[in-house]
Design goal:
Blueprint (H helix, E strand, L loop, with lengths): L4 H18 L4 H9 L13 H12 L3 H19 L8 H13 L1 H8 L4 H20 L3 H17 L3 H11 L7 H23 L3 H9 L7 H14 L6 H4 L5 H20 L14 H11 L6 H7 L2 H15 L15 H12 L4 E2 L4 H11 L3 E2 L10 H4 L11 E5 L7 E4 L5 E7 L10 E3 L4 E3 L3 E9 L6 E2 L10 E8 L2 E8 L7 E2 L4 E9 L6 E10 L6 E2 L4 E6 L1
Parallel strand pairs: 1-2, 1-3, 7-16
Antiparallel strand pairs: 3-5, 4-5, 6-8, 8-13, 9-12, 10-11, 10-14, 14-15, 14-16
Helix pairs in contact: 1-4, 2-3, 2-19, 3-4, 4-7, 5-15, 5-17, 7-8, 8-10, 9-14, 14-15, 18-19
Membrane topology: Multi-pass membrane protein
InterPro entries: LipidA_mod_glycosyltrf_83 (IPR050297), RgtA/B/C-like (IPR038731)
Organism: Archangium lansingense
């Protein structure tokens, strides 16, 4: 029987529905489930479409399948629509695509594990269909399809900008087309609600992706990027865009999207960690080019040797994700098995108390999903925050009895060995207090001398609806002020100051001034910055003030 694209679509859909139902949630997926508890036009880490997907599916099936349902359907539809870009009457190319889809590790992973890449790929295929029609007719349906799919790509993941940018670079004539510009204006208008949300929240997502992920130059991330992409794409496909000779403007766009994507993230890896799935927009262009590349009879054996064997590896990976056929326990965490048991064990000692997972916002979401009880994470604010801070979840914990859970032992903690073979350490804190959302302002002098003694007025404000206290409240130590001095972005000194009386109370909406007197260490001459925060061990240090510039002179 001839296998048609519709037959393959049904097979692919059923396969991934079964996989989604029998694979436990990953930490990222649980975090997106947390998003979906309240639908908004944007979230700290991503645009909003992924939350909408989870909300719809989870309303139908309140389990792992529900979280992934819409993603699985969109992925299957994107594969089906991909054949709209393959000329009918070329059954060999169809068969090649079937084989590559089953053999491509990254595409198989994204087919059931929910990431923003899932809807991005679906709307990307619609963009390609619209662009191909635009090259042929440049009519209104093509304009509408390009404009709407561009907006929806951006609502899924900002990587949609790369798709449009590389398409434009492959065909600069588009700059002279009023209808192409009309499609871009339409995309911008449709994307305005999200931009409005960003503006209202001081652009947290843009700041995070442009600043919060970057580090100084390092070869470590570059080597990790290269080592991940080869197995994620496969040795039989990753080289194709670099050797393929394009035949028309559409294929030139496909080629430049592939090469541009790999090159862009190669450059990004010089200063930031690149997740293996960030190159997902190269997958479908790669399939289309590779199906043309391998249709030549002389490359049949090459396809069978380089591409098809990966289908077996993908099958083993799928089975492992469902049934743990290998006892893998990487760095004391099995990312795919045992989370339900882990959550049950923690909930056994926590009872109905909220559980705070320090700065681990992914584990807090997993706990909430599998236990049905409150799990919260609080980021220190030094490099990044999370949706928990954006929704001000911290305030809900103040004054309550809270269970603090961390991976490593700390003063007063007890050890718990969970049934997923992960050891955690916990501490029950009565009358919990934390200070991550508390503004601190310091009047640090603009010019000092190395070794000077300085007295700095510290103003602490309380934006909460409850009183702010500084008592020890069962913790090993009372909260204390700390400061960090940096030069050229590098930390040169850190100190702790005991300036908060344990009986100090700041009423809701009020503020209080404290005096911090300390002696500066030996510092180099020149420009420095100083930041202040509140230390309340065993919680992570809270960075509460803006960095202030000062100069050290003679």
């Amino acid at each position: 029987m001839k296998i048609r694209p519709l037959h393959f679509f049904i097979f692919w859909l059923v396969l991934n529905l079964v996989q989604a139902a029998f694979t436990e949630l990953t930490s990222d997926e649980a975090y997106y489930w947390f998003y979906s508890r309240s639908l908004e036009w944007g979230y700290y880490d991503h645009p909003p479409f992924i939350a909408l997907m989870v909300r719809i599916g989870y309303a139908l099936f309140p389990n792992e399948l529900g979280v992934r349902l819409v993603n699985v359907i969109l992925n299957a539809l994107s594969v089906l629509l991909l054949f709209r870009l393959v000329p009918r009457g070329e059954p060999r190319r169809d068969l090649l695509i079937y084989g590559m889809v089953l053999s491509l590790p990254l595409l198989n992973y994204l087919a059931f594990i929910i990431f923003p890449d899932g809807p991005l790929l679906f709307f990307f295929v619609l963009f390609l269909i619209g662009y191909k029609r635009f090259l042929e007719k440049e009519d209104l349906p093509a304009v509408l399809l390009i404009g709407c799919s561009t907006a929806l790509m951006l609502y899924s993941k900002y990587h949609g900008v790369l798709v449009v940018g590389f398409t434009l670079l492959s065909n600069l004539r588009l700059l002279r087309s009023p209808r192409f510009w009309l499609s871009m204006v339409l995309a911008l208008v449709l994307f305005l609600p999200h931009l409005g949300w960003q503006y209202a929240h001081q652009f947290p997502t843009f700041q995070f992706h442009l600043q919060g992920r970057t580090t100084s130059f390092t070869t470590r991330y570059l080597l990790e990027y290269l080592s991940q992409q080869l197995p994620a794409i496969g040795p039989g496909l990753i080289f194709v865009p670099f050797v393929y000779r394009t035949r028309d403007r559409f294929e030139r766009a496909l080629q430049l999207i592939c090469i541009g994507t790999f090159g862009f993230f190669l450059f990004t890896a010089l200063k930031a960690f690149v997740h293996f799935h960030w190159t997902s927009i190269a997958l479908f262009p790669l399939l289309l080019l590779a199906s043309r590349f391998y249709e030549a009879e002389q490359r049949k054996s090459l396809f069978q040797f380089l591409v098809l064997p990966l289908a077996f590896a993908v099958l083993v990976l799928r089975l492992y994700l469902m049934f743990r056929i290998f006892p893998v326990n990487h760095l004391n965490v099995d990312y795919y098995h045992g989370r339900r048991l882990w959550a049950e064990d923690i909930q056994g000692v926590a009872g109905d108390r909220p559980v705070l997972f320090g700065d681990n916002f992914r584990e807090s979401s997993l706990y909430a999903f599998y236990s049905g009880h409150m799990g919260i994470a609080l980021q220190s604010g030094e490099r990044r925050r999370s949706q928990y801070e954006l929704w001000n979840q911290e305030d809900s914990l103040q004054g309550r009895e809270v269970v603090l859970v961390q991976d490593y032992p700390f003063a007063g903690s007890k050890e718990l060995r969970t049934r997923m073979d992960k050891t955690v350490h916990y501490f029950i804190a009565p009358g919990f207090s934390s200070y991550y959302d508390i503004p601190v302002e310091a009047a640090f002098p603009p010019a000092v001398k190395s070794g000077d003694s300085v007295t700095v007025p510290i103003t602490v404000s309380n934006p909460r609806n409850t009183a702010l206290r500084f008592a020890r409240a069962g913790f090993p130590q009372a909260p204390a002020l700390f400061y960090v001095i940096r030069k050229d972005g590098r930390e040169v000194h850190r100190g702790v100051l005991d300036v908060f009386p344990e009986d100090a109370v700041i009423p809701p909406g009020g503020q209080r001034e404290f005096k911090a007197s300390f002696q500066l260490p030996s510092l180099e001459e020149g420009a420095h910055t100083v930041s202040f925060g509140i230390r309340y061990e065993p919680l992570l240090d809270s960075y509460n003030s803006k960095a202030q510039a000062f100069r050290v002179g003679r």
